[in-house]
Design a protein that fits this description.
The chain is 39% helix and 19% strand. It is globular, with a radius of gyration of 19 Å. The chain has a 6-stranded parallel β-sheet. The protein has a 5-stranded mixed β-sheet with strand order 7-9-8-10-11, sandwiched between helices. The protein has 2 domains: 8-167, Rossmann fold; 187-320, Rossmann fold, CATH 3.40.50. The chain is α/β, with parallel strands linked by helices. Helix 8 links the parallel strand 8 (196-200) and strand 9.
Length: 321
Amino acid sequence: MSVKPLAMRDAFLERIWRAMAEDSKIFFTCADFGSPVLDKIRADFPDRFVNVGIAEQNLINVSAGLALEGYTVFAYAIAPFITMRCYEQVRVSLALLSEVRPMNVNLIGVGAGYSYVVSGPTHQCYEDITLMPGIPNFQVLSPADHVTASAFFDTCVNTSGPKYLRFDAQVLPVIYESEAPNTSKGFHVHKCGEAICLVATGYMLHTALKAAGELASEGIRVGVIDLFDLARFSAAEFQDALKPYAGIVSLEEGFRGRGGLDSMLFEFISRRGLSARMLNIGVEGAYHFELGTRTELHEKVGIGPQAALNSVRAFAKSLSN
């Protein structure tokens, strides 16, 4: 029986709501951002729910204070606002402070990448994939479907320290139909290939799987890896997964060559002594104000299914020459 797709935030908030009935140490904060499940949290647990208003800097500081009192805190807002609008507070009140005091604060950012397609670049979020892994002590979790997003709840409550969850705002197709991936590894191998491996995170895993399917019909077998923990994946196991490949392709819904997934992979390949060549597929370093579907916007900036397929196909050809 197929799994019905859900919004990532709804799947995750549902788990929080259920857990709050059993665990009095879970506290929820938000910056004037709602959802139907959030209405249940506010109604059923008013003494452990605070809406700070449109004040994300205050959201971070309030959440840090609650965590220092022993609460497991979930803070909820739109992705660009819970990261960039309050970056100094994230750095000082969470990343720095967590080195000297135990605390568990989980930032839920909704709207990764282009998922708010009609809202334009003010509400879209390409930079978080660079900024949040760049802060020491932060775990950055980037799911590709609601099944993985829901599974991250266990990571959040069982692991101390600050975390950032970059959720898509759209309801995406289910990838993990049978069961959730092993989140402790930080990645999941979907396909094993021959010369090339596609390493994707978040929404771009869907693009990677489409490209891999099309290439397979042309006789080109590529591997596909979902890297959903951008800071604390198992380095040894990830190295073993990449070792057989002559070429590695990163796919991210963020700016290319500006410190995101591609930079992390370049660093990883270099320090681990892997001999693979690398191709990075990401958004060119510019903002775009056009409206359209997500696929249309992606094709314009070079990360759509056809654009990615063409890039990988050319890369495969260059490896064989």
